[in-house]
Every structure is written in structure tokens, then in C-alpha cells.
Specification:
single chain, 606 residues, mainly alpha, Rossmann fold, five-stranded mixed β-sheet, two-stranded antiparallel sheet, 5% strand
């Protein structure tokens, strides 16, 4: 059901089935197009071996450098889906079965008709379907998770319904299928379910620990941010250990699992994480991915890179509208009550433990395993994890995608007898649970209806014209520079070489992007030309929308440059001059439409 729901939202938003191949590729904007380009190259390669060779020796995305894209960009999902697509299309061809249906799509009068295809034989359709199937299966995990945590099947139902009632705040997979979180997060749900099982049962076998390790690996491989999340998990486990909910032996076993998973990922990602310590790798990952973002929120000093992050909505503080939405569906009030009760019970238990006199063995420095049996440690762990996610979500808005599902899971505890036995017998508690769920459904069903009514019809004539021009009029080895989202589209749809892209977690790549973006600064044109020549750029794509003031004040590229380029503040931005006047003598205008202007960079004189 969840897979069909996601597919319906995605189709309504873009009319995906009626888009041409080029339009489908353009619909994958920014990082989405960048990741999808590797999948496209992989399935179009003559063989699996040649596709793998391109992953490891990528000479397109950071020209003239040759990089290991599998190491840098966490592309294992594209490799897996690419192999599945090869297998499926080969099977269908072998038996002579049709794998897709194509038809002519007539567009508005000034645009030529295109061929639209749907069916699993279409590469884009297959890719999106795999993502939605994976996230559809996640709903089964959420049901099991809520059921197990609350010890009640109705608790699992509450978790699933809360997720749908708050769907827009719980996931963005229906709008952004190729993003790394779409592949990674379902395995985190499975990992948290197994962790909850381990903490409750206290003595896990090797198979359970092996399953936990596998989930850690599958969670970390697609998404670098996962290491930060696992760091918060280790901190929550340590807190439970200090309070006595986890024995020293179990804590050692769990840390060993984390270390083993980190080491495997170190090998599979060609050394892209630290093998010596999960803590070191996670701390380093957090520092490199989000340090500039966090620092910019507390510091008055701004630079180009920190401003670039702070102007991206996903890296901003969590918006008030999201909190209001949680209140309207009663998800936040319910979680405040549940977390409050869990906190009071945990505090009471721990205080009683600390006030107990030590036994003789402990006084003599005996067995450290002699810890009183504190029940419901898995509930405390989940509550602590929610608090950690809430802290992250407030600071970085996109991380609310961890907080909201965790609130849905914690909502299942409304059915927990140990927590809510004071409501009366089982029948009374179930009546209260059903009443609360009914109240949540009032706004929840309205939210679902609003999502289902969202519609769109993807069209980008200016970009389509640009990409067709590039394919027709530029050499196949031409090197392009421009804004990161557009470079992703150029890489995907034309296979031309680019010097910068949206995946900005590498310091060197961020510096290359900054050099390319000097065309949007107020610097002298000679300085910008020199930087483009240093990058060996042949064509630079200038865009109107990035040059002029945007809806969010201070977030046009010239304004972002003002954060550190004090010397040139107040001057007319270079992009304004180049868009409104002749580009000679520094550039030659090679192509121009209402949204884009392609400037040919002169070759350096020998």
C-alpha cells in the first residue's frame, strides 16, 4: 500500500509516465540527477565490468581529475539497482516479453511531441520503483517495531497511522527518490528494531548480533550522514549503560558490532571512513559534513561556504510550520506525555538503584556484572534516541526525517501496560488509545488528502533547449562549469565533462565550486576568467535565477559572495554585466535563451 501511495504522489507531482527520457532526467534535479547519472552510465555500459571500471575511474564529474566515484559518492545503490535492471531486461528479452509501453505525448503548441514510456523496462521507471518498493517494505518494519515496543498490535497500527498522518514531515522520498536517505533509512528502522530486541532480551545470540551488524553496514554504505546518526545511538547506549539498563558485557558486544560494521564499510568504501574507531569516524564525518552549518548558526563570522549552506532550506533551523503540524495531529503532545512518563519512571528506578546498599562482592571489588535488573531499558533507549533526534532536527531541518518517524514509534507506547496501567484495565486503556487515535485522524486525514491533491506537470523548456544544444553543438570532450544543479543535469543528459557538482562533502570539490562561482561575484572579470582557465573550463553556463535577488533575502550568489569579498562590495555583480551586455572580449556567447547564457571561455595562449 505504501509503495502505491508513494508512486501516486510522485506521478501526480510530475506526470512522470508522460515525460520523455530527457524530461525524466531533468526532473531529477541537483544531487538526484548526479546520482542517477551513475546508474544510467552503469546500465548503458557494454558490460558489468566496464560499468564498474567507470565507477572506480570516473573522469567526467571533476575534470580533469580521475576519481573513485564509488568511494566518494556512496554509489552502491546504483550498482545494485543497475544489476537488477540488467537482469530484468535480459530475462524479458530472452522470453520475448514486452518490458515497457511507449506512446506519443503531445505537449503545448510551441513544443514538439515526445515519446513517453512506462513500465519496468524504462530505466527511470525501474529505478524509482525500486526505491518505492524498499520504502514500502519499511512500513511493515514500522508496524513490527511499534508492535514489539508496545507489546500490542494496536501499538503497531498507531505507529503506521501516525506516519501517514505526518507523512510530509516524516519522509521526502516521494519527491526525491535518488537521494541517499531513500536507500539508507529503511535499514536504520530495521537496525533500531533489532537493537530494541537486544536491549529487552539482554542476551542476544550471534545471529542477532550478526543481523545488527549487517543493518549497520547497509545503513552506512549509501549515506555518509549515517555515521553521525550512529554516533548519537552509541551515546544513547552509553547513557543506558550508565543508568544500569545495559550490562557491561552487552555494551561491549554492541560496541564490537559497531566497530565491525565500521571496518567493513572502511573496506567497501575504499578507506572513506576511519577503521580505528567508530567514534573517530563519526566525529570526523560530522565535522566535515555539517561543521560549517552548525558554526554559522552560532557565530557572527560568515564566509562563502557557510553562507551557501545557511541559504539551503534543508540546513536551516526546523521551521515553525512543522512543529505546528505535529501539534495539530497531536503527535507532539502525545510524545511529550510519553517521554515525560518514561523519564519519571527511569529516574525513579535509577534513584532506587543508587540508594541500595552495595553487596559484599561489590564492596570487595567483585564481579562488575552484579547490576540490578532494570526492566524496560528498550523504552528508555528509544526515548533517549528521540531526544537526540529532536536536538539534531532543531539545528538542521532535514534531520527531522529521523525525529518524526521516531515520534510515531514512541506513540505506540500509548498501548503499553507498564506505562499506562493507571488508565485502568486493558479495555479502558484500549478505549483511550482508540479515542486519541480518532482525534489524531481528524487532522491526519486532512493532511493525507492535501498530499493526494497536490498536482503538477513537469516542464522546463529552457533547460531542455540548453541540453539539446549541448548535445548537438559541442565536442564530446568539452568541459563545462556552472551552478552545481545544472552541472548535474549536464553530466546526466549530455555526458560532457564538468568541473563541479552538487556532492560537496569533499573540501577540494567545495573549493572548485567556489572557483566556478566567482562568475557570480563582484570581482573583476579578469580574475573570474583566470579561475575558469585554471579549472580548464571550455564553456560556462550563466543563469538568471542565481544572479538576481531571490525570495530569501541575502541568498543570491552575489550577496553570498559579499560575506567574504569585502573589497568588491557595492560593485555591480559580474553576472549582471555578462547577462545584460555583450560578453566580448573576455568570452564568446555560444548560446542564449531566456534562462541560460553559455559563454565560451577562450583558450589560454601558449
Amino acid at each position: 500500500m505504501k509503495r502505491r501511495y508513494l508512486d501516486g504522489l510522485f506521478e501526480n507531482d510530475r506526470h512522470f509516465s508522460h515525460l520523455s527520457t530527457l524530461e525524466k532526467e531533468m526532473a531529477f534535479r541537483t544531487e538526484m540527477g548526479f546520482y542517477y547519472s551513475y546508474y544510467k552510465n552503469y546500465i548503458e555500459a557494454p558490460s558489468i565490468t566496464s560499468g564498474m571500471r567507470f565507477f572506480i575511474n570516473d573522469n567526467l564529474s571533476e575534470s580533469p581529475e580521475v576519481i573513485n566515484a564509488l568511494k566518494r559518492f556512496n554509489l552502491y545503490p546504483e550498482m545494485v539497482i543497475g544489476n537488477l535492471h540488467r537482469t530484468y531486461t535480459g530475462f524479458m528479452e530472452f522470453f520475448g516479453l514486452a518490458s515497457k509501453t511507449c506512446y506519443d505525448v503531445h505537449r503545448v503548441s510551441d513544443m514538439t511531441p515526445v515519446e513517453g514510456c512506462e513500465g519496468l523496462g524504462d530505466p527511470a521507471y525501474f529505478y524509482v520503483t525500486c526505491v518505492f518498493v524498499l520504502n514500502g517494505l519499511m512500513m511493515s518494519l514500522l508496524f513490527l517495531y511499534g508492535t514489539y515496543l508496545s507489546c500490542c498490535r494496536f501499538g503497531g497500527l498507531i505507529t503506521v497511522l501516525c506516519f501517514f498522518f505526518n507523512h510530509a514531515e516524516s519522509t521526502r522520498v516521494m519527491w526525491t527518490p535518488p537521494l541517499r536517505e531513500s536507500f539508507s533509512y529503511p535499514f536504520f528502522v530495521m537496525q533500531m528494531l533489532i537493537m530494541t530486541y537486544i536491549i529487552r532480551n539482554k542476551n542476544p545470540g550471534r545471529k542477532v548480533l550478526g543481523a545488527l551488524c549487517a543493518c549497520n553496514i547497509l545503513f552506512m554504505l549509501p549515506w555518509p550522514t549515517s555515521q553521525c546518526i550512529l554516533l548519537t545511538q552509541v551515546a544513547c547506549l552509553y547513557a543506558c549503560f550508565v543508568m544500569g539498563y545495559i550490562t557491561p558485557a552487552l555494551m561491549k558486544s554492541l560496541l564490537s558490532v559497531h566497530m565491525a560494521a565500521s571496518s567493513v564499510c572502511f573496506v567497501l568504501l575504499f578507506g572513506n571512513t576511519s577503521p580505528s574507531s567508530l567514534y573517530a569516524s563519526a566525529l570526523l564525518a560530522c565535522w566535515v559534513h555539517i561543521s560549517d552549518v552548525i558554526w554559522s548558526k552560532f557565530s557572527s563570522s560568515k564566509d562563502f561556504l557557510s553562507m551557501m549552506y545557511s541559504c539551503v532550506e534543508e540546513y536551516d533551523y526546523m521551521e515553525i510550520e512543522a512543529i505546528v503540524g505535529y501539534i495539530k495531529t497531536l503527535l507532539l503532545p502525545l510524545n511529550l506525555i510519553i517521554v515525560g512518563i518514561v523519564g519519571m519512571k527511569a529516574t525513579h528506578k535509577v534513584m532506587n538503584y543508587l540508594q541500595q546498599p552495595k553487596v559484599e562482592g561489590e564492596k570487595a571489588g567483585g564481579d562488575a556484572e552484579q547490576v540490578p535488573d532494570l526492566n524496560n531499558g528498550e523504552v528508555v533507549f528509544n526515548g533517549l534516541q528521540l531526544l537526540a533526534f529532536a536536538g539534531l532536527a532543531v539545528m538542521v531541518m532535514k534531520l527531522k526525517l529521523f525525529m518524526a518517524p521516531q515520534m510515531c514509534i514512541m506513540a505506540s507506547l500509548l498501548c503499553s501496560r507498564p506505562l499506562f496501567s493507571w488508565l485502568g484495565d486493558c479495555n479502558k486503556q484500549q478505549m483511550v488509545s482508540f479515542g486519541v487515535l480518532s482525534l489524531m485522524a481528524v487532522q491526519g486525514m486532512a493532511n493525507i488528502q492535501t498530499q493526494r491533491e497536490m498536482g503538477g506537470d513537469f516542464r522546463s523548456p529552457a533547460q531542455e533547449e540548453l541540453l539539446k544544444w549541448i548535445n548537438t553543438n559541442t565536442p564530446t570532450d568539452a568541459v563545462f562549469g556552472g551552478t552545481a544543479p545544472t552541472m548535474a543535469s549536464v553530466l546526466l543528459s549530455t555526458r560532457r565533462l564538468i568541473v563541479n557538482h552538487p556532492h560537496d562533502e569533499d573540501p577540494g570539490q567545495r573549493e572548485r565550486t567556489k572557483m566556478a562561482y566567482s562568475m557570480y561575484s563582484r570581482k573583476p572579470v579578469e580574475e573570474a576568467v583566470k579561475r575558469l582557465k585554471d579549472l580548464s573550463v571550455d564553456y560556462f553556463i550563466l543563469e538568471n535565477t542565481w544572479c538576481y535577488p531571490r525570495a530569501r533575502e541575502g541568498c543570491s550568489l552575489p550577496e553570498i559572495w559579499d560575506a567574504e569579498d569585502e573589497e568588491n562590495r557595492g560593485k555591480t555583480p559580474l553576472c549582471v554585466l555578462l547577462l545584460s551586455a555583450n560578453s566580448h572580449p573576455h568570452f564568446k556567447t555560444a548560446f542564449e535563451n531566456k534562462a541560460y547564457k553559455v559563454l565560451q571561455v577562450p583558450k589560454p595562449s601558449r
